[in-house]
Amino acid sequence: MIGLRQRLARLLGARRPRLQVGAVCRDAATGDVLMITSRGTGRWIIPKGWPMPGRTLAQAALQEAWEEAGVRAPAAQELGGYLYDKAQDEGFAIPVEVRVFVVPVETLADQWPEQAQRSRRWFPPAQAAALVAEPELAALLKGLARVPAPALRPARA
């Protein structure tokens, strides 16, 4: 789906999307997904952020999972991607492509860097999909409902 939207945007003269990484934090025992609230609106989202110098995209996704949700995991596996428009303080939005990684949760900390700014909660994948605003992210989450959590074999970050 990303390819079609990108091609249309280029034809219409839109600027190239900026890149972010996202982490779908998954409980290996239940297959549930850990969702967090956004700082601005309080809606349910996945941990995500900008790529980090000196880190692979998978490593950046693991770092975002730690900072925003308190998740520790040894590895992440790329799941797919989606596009969204990120609202800016100046009143306009920029196009963003998010590369999404499955992060099998090893430990969940009681304290983490953004704890005071966010809530977190486990949801079955289909329910998590119903909570997000981005249709392409919802489709990725729905797809997890068909994949048993232990079947995910993450590559080293």
UniProtKB/TrEMBL annotation:
<protein>
    <submittedName>
        <fullName>8-oxo-dGTP pyrophosphatase MutT, NUDIX family</fullName>
    </submittedName>
</protein>
<dbReference type="InterPro" id="IPR047198">
    <property type="entry name" value="DDP-like_NUDIX"/>
</dbReference>
<dbReference type="GO" id="GO:1901907">
    <property type="term" value="P:diadenosine pentaphosphate catabolic process"/>
</dbReference>
<dbReference type="GO" id="GO:0034432">
    <property type="term" value="F:bis(5'-adenosyl)-pentaphosphatase activity"/>
</dbReference>
<dbReference type="InterPro" id="IPR015797">
    <property type="entry name" value="NUDIX_hydrolase-like_dom_sf"/>
</dbReference>
<dbReference type="GO" id="GO:0000298">
    <property type="term" value="F:endopolyphosphatase activity"/>
</dbReference>
<dbReference type="GO" id="GO:1901909">
    <property type="term" value="P:diadenosine hexaphosphate catabolic process"/>
</dbReference>
<dbReference type="GO" id="GO:0005737">
    <property type="term" value="C:cytoplasm"/>
</dbReference>
<dbReference type="GO" id="GO:0008486">
    <property type="term" value="F:diphosphoinositol-polyphosphate diphosphatase activity"/>
</dbReference>
<dbReference type="Pfam" id="PF00293">
    <property type="entry name" value="NUDIX"/>
</dbReference>
<keyword id="KW-0479">Metal-binding</keyword>
<keyword id="KW-0378">Hydrolase</keyword>
<dbReference type="GO" id="GO:0071543">
    <property type="term" value="P:diphosphoinositol polyphosphate metabolic process"/>
</dbReference>
<keyword id="KW-0460">Magnesium</keyword>
<feature type="domain" description="Nudix hydrolase">
    <location>
        <begin position="16"/>
        <end position="145"/>
    </location>
</feature>
<dbReference type="GO" id="GO:1901911">
    <property type="term" value="P:adenosine 5'-(hexahydrogen pentaphosphate) catabolic process"/>
</dbReference>
<dbReference type="InterPro" id="IPR000086">
    <property type="entry name" value="NUDIX_hydrolase_dom"/>
</dbReference>
<dbReference type="GO" id="GO:0034431">
    <property type="term" value="F:bis(5'-adenosyl)-hexaphosphatase activity"/>
</dbReference>
<dbReference type="GO" id="GO:0046872">
    <property type="term" value="F:metal ion binding"/>
</dbReference>
